[in-house]
UniProtKB/TrEMBL annotation:
GO cellular component, as recorded: Gtr1-Gtr2 GTPase complex; lysosome; nucleus
InterPro entries: Gtr1_RagA, P-loop_NTPase, RagA/B
Lineage, highest ranks first: Eukaryota, Metazoa, Spiralia, Gnathifera, Rotifera
SUPFAM superfamilies: P-loop containing nucleoside triphosphate hydrolases (SSF52540)
Subcellular location(s) of the protein: Cytoplasm
Protein name per UniProt: Ras-related GTP-binding A
UniProt similarity note: Belongs to the GTR/RAG GTP-binding protein family.
Swiss-Prot/TrEMBL catalytic activity: GTP + H2O = GDP + phosphate + H(+)
One of the protein's GO biological processes: cellular response to starvation
Keyword field: Cytoplasm, GTP-binding, Nucleotide-binding
GO molecular function, one term: GTPase activity
Pfam families hit by this protein: Gtr1_RagA (PF04670)
Length: 285
């Protein structure tokens, strides 16, 4: 199944850098060598087996933006599943930014009224964006290519695109209860974005999932540079055991267990036992 994602915003706002970090294994420093996008750059990314993300990275120069709302309007805004609009943190042309943003919303409402809308910006502008978005519903994230906030935003976006996300979460909750895990997370294998999670015990660090995505993704990239393959990680101390392992053909699983009576070997056995069930669910995405 193919789903169209529009990535829009002013030139220099970081759209292409985000795409390169998430989908092309760039580091934040690597993005400095990327040039500006000319017109529209289309790319296809396989995600969780049958799901194909058709990402339209739209150049943000004024002449291109004007074309999107006139001669290219039907082509750009038709059959869109998700619009991701990125605001430039360093922009001094706030009124012009809002003008283009509202025109994007108008065009999207006409051609893809059911599309989900995500805005990536910084905290000071959030209230204004929510005001100028009415009556449409949007989700707003404060993001930076230099920390884990990028993974939080993009994980939320892709979770909206997974067809059986509620069934996947239900199965993960049942699995977590059976093996008495504190937490379980499913990561997409290439991007290491979180596609589902189960939480049985509260934790004080609300950003821990995104931090893990960022850390493991960078570790995986470094492994590739040295011609080695990342397979699994096991961490055990007096307070908990963490296991990160390959799960289905397109996911990694992370299981956190604090009960000292549950051995890592038992947890690994349970992970292997559950694989076939989740492989079947994955094939239905």
């Amino acid at each position: 199944m193919r789903k169209k994602i529009l990535l829009m915003g002013k030139s220099g706002s970081g759209k292409t850098s985000m795409r390169a970090i998430i989908f092309a294994n760039y580091t934040s420093k690597d993005t400095r060598r990327l040039g500006a996008t000319i017109e529209v750059n289309q790319a296809y990314f396989k995600f969780l087996g049958n799901l194909i993300l058709n990402l339209w990275d739209c150049g943000g120069q004024d002449q291109f933006m004007e074309n999107y709302f006139s001669s290219q309007r039907d082509n750009i805004f038709k059959n869109v599943e998700v619009l991701i609009y990125v605001f430039d943190v360093e922009s001094f042309e706030i009124e012009r930014d809002i003008f283009y943003y509202q025109r994007s919303l108008e065009s999207l409402s006409s051609h893809s009224p059911n599309a989900k809308i995500f805005v990536l910006t910084f905290q000071k502008r959030k209230a204004d964006i929510l005001k100028y978005s009415k009556p449409l519903e949007i989700r707003c994230f404060q993001t930076s290519i230099w920390d884990e906030t990028l993974y939080r935003a993009w994980s939320s976006i892709v979770q909206e695109l997974v067809m059986n996300s509620s069934l996947l979460e239900k199965s993960l909750n049942e699995f977590s209860n059976v093996i008495e895990a504190d937490e379980i997370l499913l990561f997409e294998k290439t991007t290491f974005l979180i596609v589902s999670q189960s939480l049985r015990k509260q934790h004080s660090d609300l950003k821990r999932f995104e931090k893990i995505s960022n850390i493991i993704k960078q570790f995986k990239i470094n492994c590739n540079r040295f011609d080695t393959t990342f397979q699994s990680i096991e961490i055990k101390n007096d307070n908990f055991t963490i296991i990160i392992d390959t799960f289905t053909p397109n996911t990694y699983i992370m299981v956190i267990v604090s009960d000292p009576k549950i051995t890592p070997a038992l947890t690994i056995h349970n992970i292997k036992y559950a694989q076939k069930h989740f492989e079947k669910l994955e094939s239905q995405t």
